[in-house]
Amino acid sequence: MKHIISPLDLTVNELDDLLELAGRIYRDPKRYCKVCDGKKLASLFYEPSTRTRLSFEAAMMNLGGNVLGFSSADSSSVTKGESIADTIKVISYYADICAMRHPKEGAPLVASQFSEIPIINAGDGGHNHPTQTLTDLLTIKEMKGGLNNLTIGVCGDLKFGRTVHSLINAMVRYEGIEFVMISPDELKIPEYLRHETLDNNNISYTETNILEDVLPKLDVLYMTRVQKERFFNEEDYIRLKDTFILDRKKMQYANDDMLVLHPLPRVNEIATEVDSDPRAAYFKQANYGVYLRMALIMTLLNLPEPTKEV
């Protein structure tokens, strides 16, 4: 039995197999509509979520399975003091697989140690969000034709953004990857990530605080929100915030085949006028998330592919 607590829980070969399966499901979803007939997903969300929770539930229903669970801690027995260990022991009798989001870092890992069914981490505090990273990889692979030899710009909050950290950790395992880090000085990537992940893997990277300067060299631009609460004073935030808003004028500097990704939700870091640009892929990215989660459910449950169309 395998759990997915971090994106690095999958080897490169396992990841490639997962992404290939997700691609096949994306191209022919009807073929997979009864794969999970009789199976149940426990959706245990201890904090609010829109895309992640609904995409997990849509994924299981698209596979012909059923969903049970809760969408906030207030509607669970945690309000009575029940531990995660006891919750997951009981849920193991009710479901075949579990997706868990929890505000405390490490909670899904604890659950996996007591579970009789596969656990998928759907986000634990500021720590990991593996299915978002896997979705990012699927989007890039499907829309760019592969995951090697890419220049990836990551823009915004690089210090605290868990999606950026996970993406960097995942992409360094592929060949010919170069990163461009675009952020205010106050929100540069953490030193541990710089040294342990980039330097130790001999990954080429540059840093800048001017988005327009680097757009012409990017294959992928991964946008995140510059958060006001991360600054020590409001003056610095006001001085810098507009520098990291992607609008139609800035998009003129980008190549015709550059992808714009964003884990969502956005606030104002991508102007709505960019939505109609064919390079804007963030809503397609959210769509790919359903197919990625379908493939992950099938993989963790060791379910065979259907031999013919339904």
What does this structure look like?
The protein is of the alpha/beta class. It has eleven helices and nine strands. The strands form two sheets. A five-stranded parallel beta sheet has the order 7-6-5-8-9. Strands 2-1-3-4 form a four-stranded parallel beta sheet, sandwiched between helices. Helix 4 links the parallel strand 3 and strand 4. Helix 1 packs across helix 5, helix 1 (12-27) crosses helix 11 (282-300) and helix 3 (84-94) packs across helix 4. It starts with 11 loop residues before the first helix and ends in a 10-residue tail after the last helix. The model has no long low-confidence stretch (mean pLDDT 90).
Biggest sheet architecture: 5 strands, parallel
CA-CA gap between termini: 28 Å
Structural class: alpha/beta
DSSP strand content? 5-15%
The overall pLDDT average reads: 90
Number of strands: 9
Low-confidence runs? none
Short characterization:
Helices cover 37% and strands 15% of the residues.
How are the SSEs ordered, and which strands pair?
Blueprint: H1 12-27, E1 40-45, H2 51-62, E2 66-70, H3 84-94, E3 97-102, H4 107-114, E4 119-124, H5 130-144, E5 151-155, H6 162-171, E6 178-182, H7 191-199, E7 204-208, H8 211-214, E8 220-223, H9 234-240, H10 248-251, E9 259-261, H11 282-300
